[in-house]
Request: fold
Amino acid sequence: MRKLLLPASILLLLFLAIVVNIYVLRRELHQFYLSVVREETARVKSVVEGTIAGGGDPVEALYSYMKESKLLKGATFRLEGREIPIPGSDISSNYYRETVKLKPFTFTLYFNFSLLDELNKHLTYIFFSLLIFSSLFTFVTAWIVKEYFRKQLFYERERQERERLESINLVIHSLIHEVKNRLNTLRLLSYRMGTVCSGDTCKDYLRKLKSEVDNLGNYLEETADLRRPISLKKTKASSVSLVENAVSKFGDLLSSRGIGLKTDVENVQLNVDPEKIISALVDLIKNSFEAFENNGKGEKLIKVLGKREGRFYAFYVMDSGGELPKTDIFKPFYSTKEKGFGLGLYNVKRIVEAHGGKVSAYTEGGWTVFKISVPLS
Reply:
């Protein structure tokens, strides 16, 4: 707003200068007309005085003078208490009047100021036209300046955000490089363990370990560059199986923390990337789980719902763990947790939008609701 102060002050000074000039012009026009009328009055007085001194008829002389004058439109004379108009006089209450006393007569002269009135009207029209034009010009100029600075601010924030993402991306690349080395070690260990492991339970655990290591490796590959679009491997998947797989990741963790979990899912075959959708649901359930760690008051319950909504299928992950922050929680590297990295919800948004869907978060009836919608077809 301070940047708008200088141009606004200049516009205000220009407008005030125009107003003052119009006022001065009207005043000078009025003074000019008054000076002309006084000169005309002086000439009338001189003519009448000369006529009286020469023994002529002052009324006849004034009548003759009035016929030749462009300003003097009428006259009356007072004699013995009577107001007598001069023949041919045009007398109106709108006319300007001057009084000339020449004993025993008192003449009242009527001058037409209609031209001055017209000029004043034109000046008034000009004033209001300038007022409207100046207001519109000021509004448009202020809007243009505001838009300019808004865009400049937007570009500056975008540049800062880009630099911030570049810096964080560099850190992520370094971390991913180290994590990949550890994953390769885990793959090698799981392979060696498989050569000596016996029994179905052991092999089942190894299979799960390999699956998790592979999934983590794939996730790291896609997180390596957040600007790169997510690649999908779509296939037919049951909405119920997607939710069951996501919930199974938590095992007994929820019950050990006293957190209840309820599911109510309409079974529909969806054309999605199962691993990506499960990953998004896991991130949302994990987010709800962590909300209870920050706010342990009241009932601890997580609901996972699924149902058709028009051309979309909607998954709802709801918890009673608190309120949403008044910021864009799906923004990358934004986190309300002390040790949070701010990629969980951003990852959910990327996955859902890659499927052509939408993601949203809101509070309703004491519940914090995260909703993801994916197209049915």
Summary: The chain has eight helices and eleven strands. The helical segments are 5-53, 58-68, 114-196, 200-223, 239-248, 253-256, 274-294, 344-354.
